[in-house]
Crp/Fnr family transcriptional regulator
Amino acid sequence: MSSHSSGPVGVFTFRLNAVSNLSSPISYALGRLVGNVRTFPAHQDIVRQGDRPSQCCVVLRGWVSRNKVLEGGVRQITALHIPSTIPDLQSLMLPQMDHNITTVTSVEAGFIPHSALRHLMTEFPSLALAFWKETLIDGAIAREWEVNLGSRPAAQRIAHLFCEMATRLEHVGQADRIENALSFPWPLTQGQLGEATGLSAIHINRTLQELRARGLIEFTRQQVQITDLDRLTHFAGFNPDYLLSEKPGQSASLIDAYERAVASI
Amino acid sequence: MSSHSSGPVGVFTFRLNAVSNLSSPISYALGRLVGNVRTFPAHQDIVRQGDRPSQCCVVLRGWVSRNKVLEGGVRQITALHIPSTIPDLQSLMLPQMDHNITTVTSVEAGFIPHSALRHLMTEFPSLALAFWKETLIDGAIAREWEVNLGSRPAAQRIAHLFCEMATRLEHVGQADRIENALSFPWPLTQGQLGEATGLSAIHINRTLQELRARGLIEFTRQQVQITDLDRLTHFAGFNPDYLLSEKPGQSASLIDAYERAVASI
DNA sequence: CGTCATGTTGAGCGTCATCAACAGGAGTGG
DNA sequence: CCACTCCTGTTGATGACGCTCAACATGACG
């Protein structure tokens, strides 16, 4: 537990320890680098396609989306990010952003200068491994979204997204489970859900009604309730393996060993 | 230039230098680790979903696809890989594969044991940065595929894939350019093209005819010819920036500096 | 025998339009 | 200061219509 665990940065350092298996000194140092914390309103770009950031953004509260906008104005959401992640970490290695980072809800975000991150990476080489692993998991999620967009009909596509977000939210303690039922906040409008699934807002509306009629999900404003997770999982063809290809803590040994090996040179 | 540059491993070490900006000693060492080179027939899995590989696969000749198969038997191709890449590099960090690696053509592939890669990464910490960067570029390509699958109509979707592959192939010298025309090998059947774009094989067939009728592309068996790259680029809404978010050689300074910084500890 | 080609049919989904519900903000009067 | 209205923008809901694309044919070509 770092001294930051109680503030807004706490969720960040907590995740670094639990999910990314970073050792406490590294996550503590990272947490201390987060500065310039401020609040963004909903539906606002934090980073834009074509930008060349000199700092990275840490999401501390709220949801953000990765998205690209086509010439015609159509927007495709390619990923959803929940708190404690660094959505534009790639700008450290790829200077020009290929997509936008946009707030979904009101968002509290902090910033870490690239220079500080680079310095910390030379001090703790295993940090690069942790970042690489984060990127690999993002990649696995992106692949599953490709399958969703390319191969599943509308109802299953929406259901699959709900399954994925339910799993990810529960994993960071932001979903309430009672037996086989799961409820969690859902800040996306039907229009945004359409942008994420490649469907029109109208068709989203009708398909949601179908899912409700089947008794698979319920909506109370800003909140989704999955009545029977097993049924929804089966309906959507959801397999959670891709979200965390290993049990938490398992890769700690690799990262620790790497740290010791480099330090001993 | 390593001593391997003339053999099949040459394309691998060449790309490590040119694209990944690895220094010659590292790429030379990596090239030496490639062993057990053998040839796979077309349409065969090299690595399967659920596998826990203990080695990584280096594609030396031919094309492979990343793909996932749904319960109903529908296959979604999420990425295409051309020679000189390591498609299952992620198995170093995420032990369980979330997707299949399948040959498209006949493929020559070599293998590097995880243990050797891990050892080399402790010897050259900047190798992790290079691998991370590769993963980030893969991620940028995956995002563009998500946009393709979710937001573009059939004709533009296919045209966009042709633009992407033309650019990537030309980048490694496997496309012939004459003025504004570009021709390159195209080993995918119409069925596989459908699996990559989320369209039925029949609709692929008809849309290809439409593209031919518009004079945008021509087909000779196993070969695609883009008659006017600018026109096709405009038609598809293709912007090549995401493929290499920087000019080759630009990130060499970061990786070199990282190598020196860690070595000087 | 796999791949490409071509016709027919219909389901799935997009587009356009309208309407209700709701949340702010400005102004008004109490 | 608070309550009430009016206005406006956003979201969700619903109907009518048309187009894109999938499903199931059946041949033709290597």
